[in-house]
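WARN no homologs supplied; continuing
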Amino acid sequence: MTQLLDIVRLLGLRKAIRTKRGIDKALRHVRGYAVCSCLWAMLETGTLDEILSSTSVPMERLLGDGRLDRHVLESILSYLDGIGLVRAEGGHVRATAKLRRLMAEPRGLFELTYAYSPIFANLRDLLTGKARYPRDVQRLGKYVGRGSGQLCRALPYPVLADMLRRRGARKVLDLGCGDLAFLFYLCETVPEVRAVGIDVDEPTAAYAKEVLAASPLAGRIEVRCADMFDLAALSRDMPDVDAITAVDTYHEYLSGGDQKIVALLRSLRRSFPKALLYVGEFCKQPHAKLRRRPTAFLEHHLYHDLTNQTIVDAAAWRRMFAAAGLTILEEKVFDIVGHGYFVLR
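OK structure emitted
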């Protein structure tokens, strides 16, 4: 109490209260940056999952055989202990319920944001024109896939899996399969489905094959390295494909206009005339709406804008489908989360 009275005497009551309130408001933003940075470092080194995998972990086990710096790790854990994410005491570390909740369903948001951390680390150079994306700065592709896959299990995957199940899909071709998160979900929930996932990026396709080899679903899923803009040969190999899926894939090719995607949709229609197209895509929310209710889509739009990915509204998707000569058989647009789902013929 004596210390508080001294502060009030020196600053005056109004200024003391104003200073305290200002710091508290700023702290929310500063703490978010610090927490994310600590969690990302622990995520990348495997420390976070090691803590989450046990009720209590000895500090010495986390340090390993000198793979981590003791002082830095202790500093991070002391900070996270102070804000209630871990308890570090008696030479052991345990995750609190608060941390476990964050690393459950919302984990994908942390991983997806981590994927864009190089963009923010170089934001000054991007702003001043000294660096360009993707020439000088790239996303962390591994975490784009991991974060998106985690987040999509909340709504996009269930919606598309339900559409495929109700329409009796049996052989699915997934465009831009990444780490197979969607195909794993689909095959887990629709037992009669078999699938082929393609990705143009060779390291991504190789990683998907590694993940698949360790999965009990390996007998129902195939992975190929292929370009979705050139599938003529693949269509001859797989005439039994009756469903083509693309989850948050097409928008990455809209920065130069919609002609490339319209041409792709026409090509898919020609190459796989018996297949229905299932599209799950971001639908841009009006900025005025986000200003009134600043959801996570503000960050989502920022990440995409900074990396030259174009998000369009549902009406623009409908225009592209019509230009490609496709008919919308079913549509579900969830404005509240800025995502739309379409079945096309």
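The chain has a mean pLDDT of 93.
OK
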